[in-house]
Design goal:
The protein is of the alpha+beta class. The chain has 2 domains: 33 residues; 147 residues, Thiol Ester Dehydrase, Chain A (Roll), CATH 3.10.129. The chain has 6 helices and 3 strands; from the N terminus they run ααβααββαα. A 3-stranded antiparallel sheet has the order 1-3-2. β2 and β3 form a beta hairpin. α5 packs antiparallel against α6. The N and C termini lie far apart (81 Å). About 7% of the residues have low confidence.
Length: 190
């Protein structure tokens, strides 16, 4: 029995031609397109100027084992944030010491260690990019992020920080971040 003037064979042929067209379209557009590098691969953390967050970029090339390469790039991105956080922490604790003229250096060093180790727990890998290379082994890029809000949350829950240090960090985290950002911009201009 015919439905709407089309036989079973014609409907199958029409369906298969649509599937074939879709497959060809995906192959042509997928294979012929050039992949543009994401801004964060090119500019690093500068790709996110308005966000109150630390960004770390990791990259690895020449590693044939794909899962290992991905983990290595992720770890490099986390380490990049850790380096930035050391500078941020030193700046913040320097400001704290200046505000407390009689603060003991040992207490400030201990607060710095606790703050740094506590803050690192919030790092998340948020993106990856794979780039072809001449040797056939792709270069892997990882983007990690640690938001200032996550740092504040971690500080709030940190054990071992006095309430005075905790309050100071909570109140001055944004100011320290902004001053660090200004210092980075000065370096970039020179």
């Amino acid at each position: 029995m015919k439905k709407f003037g089309m036989t079973h064979h014609k409907r199958n042929a029409l369906f298969l031609s649509k599937v074939f067209f879709c497959v060809i379209f995906v192959l042509v557009t997928g294979c012929s397109s050039t992949h543009r590098r994401p801004d964060w691969v090119i500019e690093g953390a500068g790709a996110f100027p308005k966000e109150k967050a630390f960004y770390g970029i990791g990259d690895i090339s020449g590693v044939k084992n794909a899962p290992f390469a991905l983990r290595a790039a992720d770890n490099q991105a986390r380490a990049d944030i850790a380096k930035q956080l050391e500078v941020y922490t030193a700046s913040l604790m320097k400001q704290y010491a200046a505000s407390k003229k009689n603060a003991e250096e040992q207490n400030i060093e201990e607060a710095t260690k606790i703050f740094t180790s506590t803050s690192l727990s919030g790092i998340q890998v948020v993106d990856h990019y794979k780039e072809a290379s001449e040797d056939g082994i792709p270069r892997i890029y990882s983007l990690a992020k640690l938001g200032l809000d996550k740092i504040k949350e971690n500080v709030e829950n940190a054990k071992g920080l006095s309430s005075e240090v905790r309050d100071y960090i909570q109140k001055n985290a944004n100011k320290a971040f902004d001053s660090l950002e200004k210092e980075e911009q000065k370096k970039d201009k020179n």
